[in-house]
Amino acid sequence: MVAPWLVWAGAGVAAAAAALYARMSYEARLELVQQADVRLERLPKPFDGCKLLFISDLHSRRLTGKTIRQLAGTVDWVILGGDIMERNVPLSQVEHNLRLLTEIAPVYAVYGNHDYKADPEGLEKLMNACGVTLLRDENVPLLRNGARLWLTGVDYPRYKRNDYPPVPQLPVRDAGAECRILAVHDPAWLQKQKTIQADLVLAGHTHGGQITLPWLGPIRLNQFYRKYASGWFEWEQPEAEVRRPRMLISRGFGTRRVPLRLCCPAEMHVLTLRTESIEKTQINE
């Protein structure tokens, strides 16, 4: 005969495990929209108040129209930070995500490691069909009221990890005076840079660790990624063309391996570009 206290203890453990699993599943399914006002020193005045929607690491997750369509009319451009799909994700689901995003604003994308592991050729054809601009070490101008802002997309190294080429030069004589936003999937790109040649860098890849523990932090990230797991970063490089570059590393919207998160909820970002400093805020849509 089993002692009553063992039965109660077992029931307590089972209840705690069920509650933890429910919490982890909930965090993975959140559609958290992080809002931030981002000051860029070289931002042309006509771009003040423009908004970017940044989403990274969709993987196998399906976007819902409820959250995305609420942003229609408020977002000027959408940037996808790589890992738009992964193996065994049908292109029909990816098409759903892409067409939903192109409804609200022009969409630009870079590839991540899982895009290359899945179906890069099929994904590129689908992007072309949906009107999404794929940037592979390329620059594209964003125009507003006669002013110009450059968006640079850094391609994920297909054959040798971290084998990044130099940042593509801007096709103008006075490139040093041009404001630039750079999208790169993996923040490890930083390790190859002597100086950061962009006013704002947008990255993902880390998932913020996906499973993090109080006081211990992410349990699956190495030393570099623990330092650059997620959030905002800023540098001072007074001798460079860009004196105060900023970087956002997103926790991402999807998950990898298991559809669970802990102390690391899924997120996307609406970034309002500013020519003057305004504190960051966040909301839960």
TrEMBL record:
<dbReference type="GO" id="GO:0009245">
    <property type="term" value="P:lipid A biosynthetic process"/>
</dbReference>
<protein>
    <recommendedName>
        <fullName>Calcineurin-like phosphoesterase domain-containing protein</fullName>
    </recommendedName>
</protein>
<feature type="domain" description="Calcineurin-like phosphoesterase">
    <location>
        <begin position="51"/>
        <end position="208"/>
    </location>
</feature>
<dbReference type="InterPro" id="IPR029052">
    <property type="entry name" value="Metallo-depent_PP-like"/>
</dbReference>
<dbReference type="GO" id="GO:0016020">
    <property type="term" value="C:membrane"/>
</dbReference>
<dbReference type="GO" id="GO:0008758">
    <property type="term" value="F:UDP-2,3-diacylglucosamine hydrolase activity"/>
</dbReference>
<dbReference type="InterPro" id="IPR051158">
    <property type="entry name" value="Metallophosphoesterase_sf"/>
</dbReference>
<dbReference type="InterPro" id="IPR004843">
    <property type="entry name" value="Calcineurin-like_PHP"/>
</dbReference>
<dbReference type="Pfam" id="PF00149">
    <property type="entry name" value="Metallophos"/>
</dbReference>
